Every structure is written in C-alpha cells, then in structure tokens.
Please model this.
Amino acid sequence: MALTENPAPSSPSSPASATPPAPTTTSPVAVADPRIGGLADRLRATYRSGLTRPLNWRRRQLQQMRRMLVDHEDEFLDALATDLGKPRTEGYLTDIAFVLSEIDEMAKHLEKWNRPEKVSSPMVTQPAKSWLQPEPLGVVLVIAPWNYPVQLLLVPAAGAIAAGNAVVLKPSEVSAATSAVLARLIPQYLDDAAVVCIEGAVPETTALLAQRWDHIFYTGNGTVGRVVARAAAEHLTPVTLELGGKSPAIVDASANVRVAARRIAWGKWLNAGQTCVAPDYVLVHRSVRDALLEHLQAAVRDFYGDDPQRSDSYGRIVSDRHLDRLRSLLSGGTVLFGGESDDTERYLAPTVLVDVDGDSPLMAEEIFGPLLPVLTVESVQDAIDFVDQRDHPLALYVFAEDRVVVDDVLAHTTAGGVTVNGTIVHLTNPELPFGGVGESGMGSYHGRDTVRVFQHLKPVLARSTRVDPSIAYPPYTDRKSKLLRRFV
Ligand code: NAD
Model:
C-alpha cells in the first residue's frame, strides 16, 4: 500500500481549481467600460502606425512603469493590505520588487533581446546569411488574477511592451482595491495610445475575449483558462495559460527535516497560502513524519507567534466566499493544529491536517489557502507513484540529502518547475522559465522569456546575387543530380 492515509487516490483528471467559474460573478460590473467596444481594432491601428516599435518608446514605457511603482509604493502596499491583508514586506518583495527586477532585466537587455540573431545557412543556399528577426506580435491581452495582483499583471505587460506590442491589461476584480490603483495610475504613467488598463469582471472580460488579439496571456484557474482558450480559438490566437494545481512537497527520510519544515511553512503560509506554487500537500516518509509535524508547528510559532491572527506577518483570505470554501475543506482530515477562523477579518489560521481522506475535496481540488494536508508514505517510490497518478502540478518540491532520491524524483515525475530542498524560489531565477505543463498550463515566462513570449522570431534567409549557380535549376541532369546529392 503506497499511502497509509490515502489508499484510493482521487481522479487524476479532476480539474484542480480553487476557483470554479460561478464565483467570479460575485461582483459583476453592470455597465461595461465604453472603451471596450472595438478596443483591439483601435490598438491595432496604433500598432500599425509604428508607435510601439522604436526601442526608445519601449524603454520610456518601462522606465515609466518603474517610476509608477516607486512613486506610489505606499498606495500599492495599502491596496494589497486592503485586498489580502498582505504584510508590507511580503507585498514589497512579491508584488513590487519582483516587477522592478523584471523591468530592469528587460531594460538592460532591450537591444540584445530585440536584435536579430545570426544562424548558419546550408551549403545549397550559399552565399547567404540567415537570422532570426524578433518582431512584436501586435496587440496583446493580459488577464491577471487577484493573488499577486500587481506582479501578475505588470510583468507580462512589461514583456509585451519590451517586445514592441500594444497591450490591454485586465486586472482582477476580486482584488478590487489594487485594481483601482492600477486603473488610475497606468494612464498617468504609460502611453494610453498603446497601453490600456480595463477594469471589470466576467462581462468585461468576455467582451474583450470576443475581439481579435495577437496573443492572450492569462493567469488564473483552469476552468476560466478553458474559456480563454475557446475564445482564442475563434481567431486562432495563441495563448499563454499560467494556471495552478496541487503542487506536492516530498520529504524523504534523508531530508534535513527542520529546514524542510521551515521552508515548507514559509512557502505554504506566504500570502496565507494563496500562491499558485505554494506546496499544496506534503508526502512525508514515515520515519520522519513526527519530526516534520513538530518542526512545522515550531516554524509557525517562530514565524507568526502563538496567535497568528495577531501577527502582522500573516495575510488574510481574499473574500468571504474563499473563506467559506476553505473552511469546508477542513473536514477532509484531522486538524493537528490551526483550523481557527474569524469572519470579521477573513482570517484562517495556518493549519496542518493529518489522517487525510484521499477522496475528499481537500485532496481533489487545489487548496489555494493556508491548509496543509500531510500524508505519510512508506518510500520515495510511493511518493512518485502518488504524484504520477495525478495531473502534472505547477511546482514540485523534494527535500532530500540523498542525491539518488532527488534524481529519482526528478526523473520520474513531471511538473512545471522544481525547487530542491526549498519551495517557490525556482521562480525567482530569471534564467529559469516559469510556467506549467498539462493541467497546470502552457507557455512560460520570466527573464528573457517574458519578452520572447510576446515576440515572433521571424526566420530570414537572405541570398546573395553575386553568383547564381544553375545546379538546382531545371532541366535536371544526371550530373546536377549527382552534385546535388553531395550537398543535401
Ligand atoms: P480570478 O478570479 O481573479 O480570475 C482570473 C482572471 O480571469 C480575472 O481577471 C477575472 O476577471 C477573469 N475571469 C474570471 N472568470 C471569468 C470568466 N468566466 N470569463 C472570462 N474571464 C474571467 O483568479 P483565480 O482564477 O481565482 O486565480 C487563482 C488561480 O490562479 C489558482 O488556480 C492559481 O493557482 C492560479 N494562479 C496561477 C499562477 C501562475 O503563474 N501559474 C499565478 C497565480 C495564480
């Protein structure tokens, strides 16, 4: 038996979605923004005018985006606190500093990342030169969710701008305070002829999705991801889908258990668990299970004190609906610690669950909140089998000092990305593209890829007319044929 607490793994194909479609209609805006009608066409006219092409224009927009974040840092942090009770340090690091560092990378490499890249040319085409010529896609739509509402809107938008596109930014209506700040400041800082922020919920997004874009970059749950992909298919528009899923943390018998517990605790309870790459559940080897549970509890005490509700380092749940959903998941196991909640503050304590029912919603859907089920396994193979039977997660974490175990897990599981002996931090490395695989999404970004995702690398082969050998031209003779066979 692979799992003592989970003899019957849930269906691998159950959609891992913390956010089913209905709830997004909780705060619909009755009247659509009048700018929405024909917006893609208007921006396409701007794009065709050439406004967004010069690198100077792009650099200026990136500088302005940076300035907007720096000038109004407090307003952003206040809004994040209103929406998510986000501690200011967390808000700064994950929603402000992260964007600044991506913008700075783009500005630093703007010429290089938009410069043609030489490649070799085959003999039969000589004399010739070949290159990949980056060009913008045109007019792109960026749709963001509420959990890192600044980062997940502005990083792709900056990439689109750096690549020379016109862009529409659609922040999440669920993080309403942050959305309002973005909608007010973006037109003050950025060129509104080519960069437009549209607030709204399902009606507005639906109206935007009906238009023809050259790329749609969507971050959010998989249910709406399918809505986006269907709408895009109408116009054969390519999409990037940055989705979620249940990201496992595997703790091997060889792990440094104290460090593992602290790093899992940090990744899990950052933003009160509302992080797409938060460890969703833990698979721990029986021999270190009790130690891990003790260290998890100690880590929570260390990080948030005896009463996390009074800690200013711990966030809040984004809405009453999400709080209710998370509370309903508590019945999927036995609460080892935590479990307390307070409606007036949308507070839900850092919570660890044991004796987990593998068929419960707790193990079927992405938790996306501060509940951490800990399941016991008898071997690394059991953990690999457990992960392998489910949808490919957005992230996977393996804690082990034994290199063979790490290699084994890496070789036999699939995930969007991995941190070994840590959580979340793989996505802070701009050298590592960030994105999902299978149910956790398609396409990736960060670093060079944040710009590349919004570029078409146009292949060009330019021949010289200095010579024009007739070897490939008809009439085909035996001699030409023999010669050609030596070259192709
Ligand atoms: P959300 O409810 O804010 O929705 C995301 C966006 O989709 C919003 O802008 C919203 O207006 C729009 N939307 C919602 N319903 C729609 C509909 N029916 N038609 C058209 N547009 C619609 O955010 P969410 O989906 O609850 O976000 C949480 C999910 O996002 C989790 O699954 C999480 O794992 C995932 N996520 C992924 C990443 C990543 O980078 N891969 C990052 C953050 C969150």
